[in-house]
């Protein structure tokens, strides 16, 4: 089963929140165009980098849309690639200016590792986000208190101010779902997520009720993968992001404890797309999942064990 269109034509709720600027899409479009121009000149990345007097890794990151570049460097690359037509240069240089504009999350550079920056840009620009989480509630669906306990788990000795900054970042990220132009989020949660009492019963009860509320929105789908499905599924969480520009390929994000991998080759992306399709098929329906979330929330609220296997 391939997911394509969100449920509902527009998000419901109050006034639309203006969409924060994300450089992800202009970076990807610019990168693909620069790569095509370089190849048309039969230049290697190393040769282009040498002409620009930078490391080849800089050109590679630029072509992959991982980073922006100063407009003057892009102008120099266009000259190296023989682009002299003024209209085309203006379009690409305008893209370069947008691509080099920091996203709002750069305010959190003190707590955002370099490997996370590209994902934050993709997350804020995506039209569809499909994810599987085997351990915790997905970041975009976490309550503030649940997030506070999750971000503190590996950082028991961290400064309290740093922890609060990490929580603030996670809450800010979740606001993308409040926008009318925000993504359709389709989240599959392993049943273990419901049964793991992060932060204690009160925190879990509130978090599970929040999941129900979010799942009731037309642009959010939440499903529970039951233990009875018997699937180990993946080595960790995986997220597939689809961007609104039709010519851009899907990206798969695989996060580890202290690093992340971005999957971009068509064969690998298709593997993870099929994996998520299988997980969706094996999961309980959104309506049954809603019931399970409410039952687990009630158990936590009553200080009873939620360990009823689906």
Note down, in words, how this protein is organized.
With about 300 residues, the chain is an alpha/beta fold. The chain has two domains: about 25-100, 434 Repressor (Amino-terminal Domain) (Orthogonal Bundle); about 105-300, Endonuclease, Chain A (2-Layer Sandwich). About 45% of the residues lie in helices and about 10% in strands. The chain has twelve helices and six strands. It has helices spanning about 25-40, 45-50, 55-65, 70-80, 85-100, 115-125, 145-150, 160-175, 190-195, 200-215, 265-280, 285-300, and strands at about 130-135, 185-190, 220-225, 240, 250-255, 260-265. A six-stranded mixed β-sheet has the order 3-2-1-4-5-6, sandwiched between helices. A hairpin with an 8-residue loop joins β4 (about 240) and β5 (about 250-255). α1 packs across α5 (about 85-100). Residues about 1-20 have low confidence and may be disordered.
CATH class identity of the largest domain: Alpha Beta
Q: What is the overall shape?
A: elongated
Largest sheet: 6 strands, mixed
Helix content: 40-55%
Helices and strands, in N-to-C order?
HHHHHHEHHEHHEEEEHH
What is the CATH architecture annotation of the largest domain? 2-Layer Sandwich
Rg result: 21 Å
Q: Give me the secondary-structure category.
A: alpha/beta
Give descriptors for this structure:
310 residues, alpha/beta, Endonuclease, Chain A, 6 strands
The gist of it:
By secondary structure, the protein is of the alpha/beta class. The protein has helices at residues 24-40, 45-52, 56-63, 71-80, 86-99, 117-125, 144-152, 160-174, 191-195, 201-215, 266-282, 286-301, and strands at residues 128-133, 184-190, 220-225, 238-242, 251-255, 260-263. The protein folds into 2 domains: 24-101, lambda repressor-like DNA-binding domains (434 Repressor (Amino-terminal Domain)); 105-301, Endonuclease, Chain A (2-Layer Sandwich), CATH 3.30.870.
């Amino acid at each position: 089963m391939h997911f394509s269109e969100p449920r509902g034509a527009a998000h419901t709720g109050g006034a639309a929140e203006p969409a924060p600027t994300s450089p992800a899409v202009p970076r990807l479009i610019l990168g693909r165009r620069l790569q095509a121009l370089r190849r048309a000149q039969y230049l290697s990345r190393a040769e282009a980098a040498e002409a620009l007097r930078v490391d080849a890794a800089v050109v590679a990151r630029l072509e992959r849309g991982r980073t922006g570049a100063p407009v003057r460097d892009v102008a120099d690359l266009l000259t190296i690639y023989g682009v002299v037509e003024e209209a085309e240069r203006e379009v690409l240089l305008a893209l370069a200016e947008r691509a080099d504009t920091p996203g709002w999350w750069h305010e959190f550079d003190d707590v955002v590792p370099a490997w996370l920056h590209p994902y934050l840009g993709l997350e804020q620009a995506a039209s569809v986000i499909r994810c599987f989480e085997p351990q915790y509630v997905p970041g975009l669906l976490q309550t503030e208190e649940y997030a506070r306990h999750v971000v503190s788990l590996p950082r028991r000795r961290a400064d309290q101010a740093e922890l609060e900054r990490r929580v603030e970042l996670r809450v800010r990220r979740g606001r993308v779902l409040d926008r009318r132009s925000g993504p359709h989020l389709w989240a599959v949660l392993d049943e273990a997520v419901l049964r793991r009492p992060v932060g204690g019963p009160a925190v879990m009860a509130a978090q599970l009720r929040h999941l129900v509320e979010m799942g009731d929105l037309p642009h959010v789908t939440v499903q529970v993968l039951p233990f009875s499905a018997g699937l180990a599924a993946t080595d960790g969480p995986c997220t597939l992001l689809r961007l609104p520009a039709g010519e851009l390929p899907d990206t798969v994000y695989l996060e580890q404890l202290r690093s992340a991998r971005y999957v971009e080759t068509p064969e690998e992306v298709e593997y993870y797309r099929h994996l998520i399709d299988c997980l969706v098929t094996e999961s309980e329906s959104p309506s049954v999942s809603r019931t399970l979330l409410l039952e687990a929330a009630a158990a936590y609220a009553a200080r009873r064990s939620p360990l009823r296997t689906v």
